[in-house]
Amino acid sequence: MKQIHLAVSSILLLCCSLFSQAQQTVATNTNTVVPSLVNFSGTLTDDDGKPLTGITGVTFYLYQEQQGGAPVWMETQNVQPNPNGQYTVMLGATSSTGLPATIFQSGEAHWLGVQAQGQAEQPRVMLLSVPYALKAGDAQTVGGLPPSAFVLAAPASTSSAPSDNTAAAGVSSSTTLPLSSSDVTTTGGTANALPLFTTTTNIQNSIITQTGKTGVNVAGKLNLPATGTATSTAGKNSQPQTFVASAFNSGTSTAVAQTFQWQAEPVGNDTSTASGSLNLLFGQGTSKPTETGLNIASNGIITFNSGQTFPGAGTGTVTSVASGAGLMGGPITSSGTLSIATAGVTNAMLANSSLTVTAGTALTGGGAVSLGGSTTLNVDTTKVPLLNTNNTFTGTQVMSGTNSAGVLQVTNTLTSGQTYGVLGRTSSPNGSGVLGEGPTTGGFGVTGQTSGGTAVYGLEAALSGSSIGVWGLSQSTSGVGVFGEANAGSGTATGVAGQTSSPSGYGVEGTGPNVGVYGTAGAASGATSGVYGTASSSSSFGVQGMSPNVGVYGQGTGSSGIGVDGHGTIQGVKGISTATNGVAQGVYGLTSSSSGFGAEGVSPNVGVYGQASGGSSLGSLVGGGFGVWGDTGGTSQLYVGVAGTADDNVGGWFINDTSTDTVTPALEAVNNSTDSSSLVFQTESGVNNAACTINANADLSCSGTVGGAVRAGDGARKVMVHAVQSPENWFEDFGSGTLANGSATVALDPTFASTVNTTTDYHVFLTAKGDCKGLYVTNETATGFEVRELGTGNSNVAFDYRIVAKRAGYENQRLEDVTERYQQMQEQQRLRRERMQQRRAARPASALTAAPEARAIAAPPAPATSAIGPTPPHR
Q1: What are the strands of the beta sheet with 86-91, ordered from one edge?
Q2: What pLDDT score does 521 carry?
Q3: Which of 275, 572, 664, 725 could form a disulfide bond with 267, CB atoms 3.0-4.6 angstroms apart?
Q4: Reduced to 3 DSSP states, what percent helix, strand and coil does the chain have, rounded to the nearest 5?
């Protein structure tokens, strides 16, 4: 909603003659009349202070009270402000008689109220002494008529003898006074009729009569014209007909105006069916009247408020009740009885009736259904199994038969995901999910075959004990307890997969004097695995190897082969070296391929975990989800969790490859210290001991400059710019304003004010944008300030301002001494460099260049072919 602001630029000047002009004698025939118009100037602006420049309907009210009460006079004019929103009108211009002189005859104070169309009435302005010159204008008339109307007519004969009766102002009854053509004449009037100038010099009755002070009658049309001419973009309302009541409010102890308005409004503007409606509006006090919801359309249809009820407070009346099919007795207009016809109810009547269908045993659905309609009964799948869908059985299910293909054959045709042909589970610590026994030499207890999934999958879900996911037992010297073979030509096929949820269990356990677990991957291509292990427990292992020489040895010879591939929810591959000297590695990876990996860790928790001088206290708190995790618990500040080193290359590279994520950073650093001055990020340079830090309070501190490279010209050239720095922490804001009669109030932006401390001193710098005596700032508060013109000037000049205030929480910081902090950083940098030089000097030169072949890591011997056992049959 736009709000109209008024700036009285002139004190209601009234164009009038001096009161002495009314005392001229009749003989002069001078008929000067005081103009009954008041010159008024103001300014129209919206809520944002921007000038209103379009034609606006403005209603002016005169009151006898500063607040409340009904207006004693009102009129509406179409106002055309200038580009600055300023306008000038002549109050009373809409009437041929102007402002009524009787308003000011009592000499009481009056207030002027202004209300733009569709807006609330603004605070009233008291009229000063000048408008009361209208009282002086009344001296030119006697009872509202000019003095010439009271001149005595000349007698039939003249006499030189003086008469006993003399006329007013020393004119004798025998004097003949000629009338000029400009004198006002009247042929007589009717009592209680308001006079009307039918010509410029003649007064006759108008169509308005007044009976005492109780009523006014209009014997004709009372026209309330539109506030403007409609355009294709907007229609125009009529001038409103206002009715004002006054009600006393006990809560505020004031009289409150109750204003109703009838107003004609356009409907369907800029359409071929454009019309109008008569609307009722209501407003209370100084608030503008708004729509009540009651209006009358052009065709006489009345639209009521949505809360309207009929017929009001009464009990209501039904005008007529008709009898439908099968009923008799209607229509009933006041009272009566409806009854079923003698012929009864027909089938056509039953079409609207309904019956209830109840679902029986093992069925669902049913319910009410109309005659001729339908309903659906469904099978209860909790009681009746269905084909081509999942079913759940309880109790023991027994199947027997002599079919050579098997009593039960299960086929899972799903070609993706983790599928199962048969899934067996047991909750007994000594039970078996699936038990298979083969009585013959070449038979198999359990045979599984797959083209891409898992042939046989055993899940050991016990949380304690030594239960087994899949147990294979062979008592033959050449038999195989569990045999796994992956012959898939592509994909991630697995010969044997072992998984355990027990804290002390094993997915696959192999023991033997030669090879505990031996796996070969014979696929010609793809990422097949000879041995593949996954672990879900925090202390379990997918594959664990222990040996005085090599715990787990993997060698990948293909172009895409992998020596050791570890996947685990906790650790994919864990390597521990207990050697106290030499170049020992927990996990060592080397590759000569340009796109290969020396060591690759893939895991939903931690791909590769590296630890230096013990684990940190955060190790058990931060959870997982790390590609590489570097951890250290050393008491010295010289240990590093993750280090990246390079010669003439990049020591660390962090990439967040996304185009939609605006929150996740490529690099994140956290310091959990409760001291806000603790460092989160630090850069170091060997040149001049330069450094840059970010502490836990997100304060950036650099020993160098703060600047940026910006484009110059067409962008092919870039130049360096530098930030303005200050010994104190300041925030700035900028804005513009305009003086109104030499003053303006500026409110601080609430968001800006919330970031600074305006209760302490802040500074405002002003720049005038026009000719004036000069500007100054006064009445500074926490929410705003005032701008005034020097020398009590009253110009309407525009201005710009700049505000400088101290950032909240940093009011007392000035040239903070950080010498000790930078000295500590330099000392840590020196110790790290010294330690690196000592380690380099102690490390043998051969260790820096030794190839993996020179480390004498022997591959375990392959078992004999006969140890593999018979080949499983293929179906």
Answers
A1: 13-14, 38-43, 86-91
A2: 58
A3: 275
A4: 10, 25, 65
What is the amino acid identity at position 798? A
Long-range contacts of 24-28 (CB under 8 A, 24+ apart): 25/169, 26/147, 26/148, 26/151, 26/169, 26/171, 26/177, 27/171, 27/177
pLDDT tens digits, residue range 730-766?
A: 899 999 999 999 999 999 999 999 999 888 789 999 9
**DSSP calls for 404-444:** TT-S--------SSS--S------STT--SS-----STT--
Rg of the chain over Cα atoms, rounded to whole angstroms, equals 51
Cα distance between residue 24 and residue 31, in whole Å: 9
List, in order of start, the domains of the chain with CATH numbers. 13-142 (2.60.40), 192-220 (no CATH), 237-303 (no CATH), 679-724+817-847 (no CATH), 730-806 (2.60.40)
Handedness of CA 791, 796, 798, 801 (dihedral sign): positive
Given a contact cutoff of 8 angstroms between Cβ atoms, the answer to whether 113 and 61 are in contact is yes
**Maximum CA extent, the chain:** 175
Burial class (CB in 10 A: 0-12, 13-18, 19+), 829: middle
Per the document, the length of the chain is 875
Kind and range of the H or E run holding 349: helix 347-350
The closest of 825, 809, 801, 708 to 754, measured between CA atoms, is: 809
Say how many C-beta atoms besides its own lie within 10 A of residue 505's C-beta. Answer: 22
What is the CB neighbour count within 10 angstroms for residue 44? 26
What is the Cα 341 distance to its own chain's centre?
65
- Neighbouring C-beta atoms of residue 865, cutoff 10 Å: 7
DSSP-assigned letter for residue 725: -
Cis preceding-peptide flag for 83 (omega within 30 of 0): no
Query: With contact defined as beta carbons under 8 Å apart, do 644 and 632 qualify?
Result: no
C-alpha to C-alpha distance for 141 and 300, rounded to whole angstroms: 49
Token code pair at residue 223: 């026209």
Give dist(CA 495, CA 528) in Å, integer.
9
Buried b (16+ CB within 10 A) or exposed e, 642-666: eeeeeeeeeeeeeeeeeeeeeeeee
Tokens for 121, please give them.
Answer: 């009435």
Residue 567 in tokens: 């996947």
Give pLDDT < 50 ranges for the chain. 1-32, 153-179, 181, 847-875
Provide the token pair at 239: 């001038």
Quick one: how many helices (H) and strands (E) in the chain? Answer: 5, 39
| Residues in contact with 256: Cβ distance below 8 Å, sequence separation at least 6, in sequence order | 68, 246, 247, 248, 249, 284, 285
Q: With the CA atoms of 263, 268, 274 and 276 taken in that order, what torsion angle do they form, in degrees rounded to the nearest 10?
A: -20
Give the three-class secondary structure for 149.
Answer: helix
Show the DSSP H helices in 696-855 as ranges.
750-755, 819-842, 845-849
Q: b/e for 59-68, b at 16 or more Cβ within 10 A? A: bbbbbeeeeb
Give the per-residue pLDDT at 257.
92
Structure tokens of 175?
């004097």
Tokens of 419: 């599928």
Distance from chain centroid for Cα 577: 55
Each as own residue / partner, the long-range contacts of residues 832-838 (CB below 8 Å, 24 or more positions apart, any chain) are 832/638, 835/638
Contacts of 216 (CB under 8 A, 6+ apart): 208, 209, 210
Q: Is 392 exposed, middle or buried (0-12, 13-18, 19+ CB in 10 A)?
A: exposed
| Residue bearing tokens 């083969």 | 438
pLDDT value of residue 250: 94
Residue 586: both structure tokens together? 């927990």
